[in-house]
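Supplementary Text 2. Reproducibility record for the structural model of the 72-residue chain.

All settings were left at their defaults, and a single model was retained for analysis rather than an ensemble. We include the record here because the model underlies the residue-level annotations in Supplementary Table 4.
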Amino acid sequence: MMISYKKLWKLLIDKELNKKELAGLAGLSQYTINKLNRGDNVTTETLAKICIALSCDIGDICEVVYPVENKA
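Retained model, structure tokens:
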């Protein structure tokens, strides 16, 4: 199971923001932005800060992605 942040990047495009601006609005470090960019795990506090900064819900910025099972 993984978390995908593709929704976050699409939302930034819709709001005409870049990652550096998101970091400033949400009070995040570049390290945390890099973790999101790589699809690494971040804290729920980080996700909450992003939601507050973008006035959105957590489902608007990330989703759970399940691996596809091979059926041989």
